[in-house]
Amino acid sequence: MKKVFITRRIPQNGINMLRDKGYEVDISSNESPLTQEEFITFLKSKPYDGVLCMLSDRIDAKVFDAAPSVRIFSNYAIGFDNFDIVEAKKRGVYLTNTPHGGVDRVAEHTWALILALTCRIVEGDTYTREGKYTGFDPMLLQGMKVSGKVLGLIGAGRIGTEVARIGASGFGMRVAYYDIVRNEKIEELQNVTYWPTIEDVLKQSDIVSIHVPLIASTRHLIDAERLKLMKESSFIVNTSRGAVIDETALVEALKTGAIMGAGLDVFEYEPGLTSGLTDLKNVIVTPHIASSTAEARQDMARMSATNIIELFENGRPIDVIQ
Ligand code: GLV
What we know:
This protein is α/β, with parallel strands linked by helices and about 325 residues long. The chain folds into two domains: about 120 residues, NAD(P)-binding Rossmann-like Domain (Rossmann fold, 3-Layer(aba) Sandwich), CATH 3.40.50.720; about 180 residues, NAD(P)-binding Rossmann-like Domain (Rossmann fold). The strands form two sheets. A seven-stranded parallel β-sheet has the order 8-7-6-9-10-11-12, with helices on both faces. Strands 2-1-3-4-5 form a five-stranded parallel β-sheet, sandwiched between helices. The two termini are about 25 Å apart.
């Protein structure tokens, strides 16, 4: 009987799929992500065949050493920067992700952050709750309309493409995207253009949205120098991975008014926040919930369980990273 360990409670549909195959399934009952020590203790407790893990679980040499029987680490996430791919390759261990899980929802959340920033929703809510609203004021909390403005996308995969579609067709925005490879699908959309450098996108956009994976070449892709290129009236939104932006440089840019505001669902030292970030009124933060709907989370449970089942029943998972 195959033994599978799930590192965090997930929607029941994924658990049922594994149990229906007759697998023995153990689930961590921790209310927070496992520390690597706790994770390793679990892994050593039984000869597991597969692990369904979270983006917060670092899967590296230490983990592989503690779990020599595990043939697959199936990430419950689109991103996979928590995997040491080189080490997995050496050991012939499969790594998988859920590339289609919650794509449209992450795009919606990106738009929620853009609109919340430009309509000053959080500031307005706080102001009203605090009893400060004394009557209509033409000068109160002026925001920025997005219609007709330039939306700059850094990264144009599935999520970036959906964000572009909403911006171009919903708000009549001009969309400029930069990616290391051109994406024919995004270019089929009206008003979407490829710009050959990040610098151009940063200089000319009113809203910049980040949609690249975190890999060595994208760590601090948006650093102090590049933040300086952005317009003072512009906003930046990040629903990809926190470390793509140098968060210390971002706090500085927001503090000094070098840019107008930021909407972040991800953080460089997640779950930690860079000092000063949440003191700023021109920042909206959400706790890595961009794909958090019941549908998306069930889809991710199905996809991550399917990858394990496909390996054990048919010899190869579907969404193989390595
Ligand atoms: C969430 O951040 C994911 O990668 O799915």
